[in-house]
Amino acid sequence: MQFIIGNWKMNGTRKEKDTMTATISRKKTSARVILCLPFTLLSGENHGVLIGAQDISEHDNGAYTGDISGKMIAETGAKYVIVGHSERRSNHDETNKMIKTKAENAIKNKLIPIICIGETLAEHKSGATKAVITKMMKETLPISGKFIVAYEPRWAIGTGLTPTPEQTAQIINMIYEYLKKHNHGTTPIVYGGSINATNAKSFISIPHINGLLIGGASLKTKTFLPIIDSIS
Ligand code: PGA
Fold first, then answer.
1. pTM of the predicted model, to two decimals?
2. Residues classed as catalytic
3. 23 CA to centre of ligand 1 in angstroms
4. Of the residues 18, 89, 185, 223, which has the maximum number of CB atoms within 10 A of its CB?
5. Radius of gyration of the chain (CA)
6. Under DSSP, is residue 14 helix (H, G, I), strand (E, B) or coil?
7. Cβ atoms 35, 50 nearer than 8 A
8. Environment class of residue 118 by beta-carbon count within 10 Å: exposed (0-12), middle (13-18) or buried (19+)?
9. Does 35 score more than 70 pLDDT?
10. Pocket mutation for ligand 1, best pick of 3, 121, 195, 196 (most atoms within 8 Å of C-beta)
11. At 108, which helix (H) or strand (E)?
12. pLDDT digits 0-9 by tens, 48-78
């Protein structure tokens, strides 16, 4: 089964969510479509579409102004949560240690974390990708529980740039081997970064890829539906 995960980031109104979820619900697809929405849009009518959050607090409750706990997210009906997105790492200084705690917190609250890993452009250019990815996996992945790994090269997010399918295949294979070695051989691996209707198919056909994480192109039905179609 392939996952098609939309990440709306800080975009979207309730009306836009309603249009998108109603449209997806009418679509015949073998893909598991998940929409990761801003906290304010998590609750309410989903038309049966799976919903996820984009962040989770490291803590259970208490004096953490502005944070949202796993229990609160679960109470909205959301089933997934993105953790360690590149924009959280850059804009909020999230570290691997924090990301691991967030992933474990999600699992504790019966949410499935979508754990993002990826190298910067400088790391990519210097050939450090494999080392960086391995370190991130070592330091962020939970020992047990269900999760999804999202390989998102940080330089590919929102830039229109992507690694070649060959480069991607190498990294995905390395991630797959790592997971298998650590008793997570059935963990889904998705690719994210500048996916659109034109390139979706070439990424989805890479061995061991189980789906795509899509930012910009997930915001409008006109750009998102053709990506879902590329799976069916
Ligand atoms: P993008 O974003 O598809 O707009 O590059 C991907 C992401 O941030 O997950």
1. 0.98
2. 85, 152
3. 21
4. 89
5. 17
6. helix
7. yes
8. buried
9. yes
10. 195
11. helix 96-108
12. 999 999 999 999 999 999 999 999 999 999 9
